[in-house]
Every structure is written in structure tokens, then in C-alpha cells.
């Protein structure tokens, strides 16, 4: 089997029912790099927080379940990967929920062989 050198996951993990399962699947490919982008992170959370995202009515009327991740927990879920870089998404603005600041972050992870 041939696997990609890079997997890009942008604004996806927070909408999956079981993000850890999908992270485990990504890690199983053992590609050299995984790039995560536009992912809601709260540094002060001890565990992930499941919320409801309401789409502004001028876009369309909808709501979705959405995870906000505890940064340390998310990064440690990428077994056999080291974080090489982190960055704040330039597309999404920070938000406040439950009196906590949520930033949309990106990470470059490299396989630890």
C-alpha cells in the first residue's frame, strides 16, 4: 500500500461524532506529516467540550454539534507524532464561550519514527 506524505485536516475534527477515533485512523496511515487547521482550541480546558454551533441566519438557519478541544488532550491523541509548529488560523476569529476564549488553531505534526 502506498500512503500519502501529508494529510491535511481543516475545520473537520470538531464536527465528527468521535474525533479521537478519526485521529487514531489518521495516525494509522503513518504518513510523514499531518496538518491540522481551523480547529477550535481552548488552552484552559481540562477536557473537550461539546457545544452547539449556531449558523448566523443571514448565511442559513442551522445548528450543529461542535467540539471545542483541550489543546493538550488533542495533541497527545496523535500517537507517534511530534508537534513541530502551531499557528492561529487567519480565517477564523477567536470566540468566547462559557467565559473561556476559544482560538482556531493549526498544527504541523511529524511522524516520530
Write a structural description.
With 113 residues, the chain is mainly β. Strands 1, 2, 3, 4, 5, 6 and 7 form a seven-stranded mixed β-sheet that branches. 18% of the residues are buried. The model has no long low-confidence stretch (mean pLDDT 94).
Let me know the average pLDDT.
94
Could you give the order of the helices and strands? EHEEEHEEE
Share of helix among residues? 10-25%
Q: Count of helices?
A: 2
Largest sheet: 7 strands, mixed
- Give the overall shape: globular
Descriptive terms for the model:
mainly beta, 14% helix, seven-stranded mixed beta sheet, single chain, 113 residues
Protein topology:
Layout: E1 6-10, H1 19-28, E2 33-42, E3 49-55, E4 62-70, H2 71-76, E5 81-88, E6 95-97, E7 100-111
Parallel strand pairs: 1-2, 2-4
Antiparallel strand pairs: 2-7, 3-4, 5-7, 6-7
Give a brief description.
Helices cover 14% and strands 48% of the residues.
Amino acid at each position: 500500500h502506498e500512503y500519502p506524505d501529508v494529510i491535511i485536516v481543516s475545520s473537520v475534527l470538531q464536527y465528527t461524532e468521535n474525533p479521537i477515533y478519526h485521529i487514531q485512523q489518521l495516525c494509522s496511515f503513518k504518513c510523514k506529516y499531518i496538518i491540522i487547521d481551523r480547529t477550535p482550541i481552548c488552552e484552559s480546558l481540562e477536557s473537550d467540550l461539546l457545544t452547539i454551533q449556531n449558523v448566523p441566519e443571514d448565511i442559513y438557519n442551522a445548528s450543529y454539534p461542535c467540539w471545542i478541544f483541550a489543546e493538550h488532550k488533542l495533541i497527545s491523541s496523535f500517537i507517534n507524532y511530534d508537534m513541530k509548529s502551531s499557528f492561529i488560523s487567519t480565517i477564523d476569529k477567536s470566540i468566547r464561550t462559557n467565559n473561556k476564549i476559544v482560538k482556531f488553531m493549526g498544527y504541523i505534526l511529524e511522524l516520530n519514527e
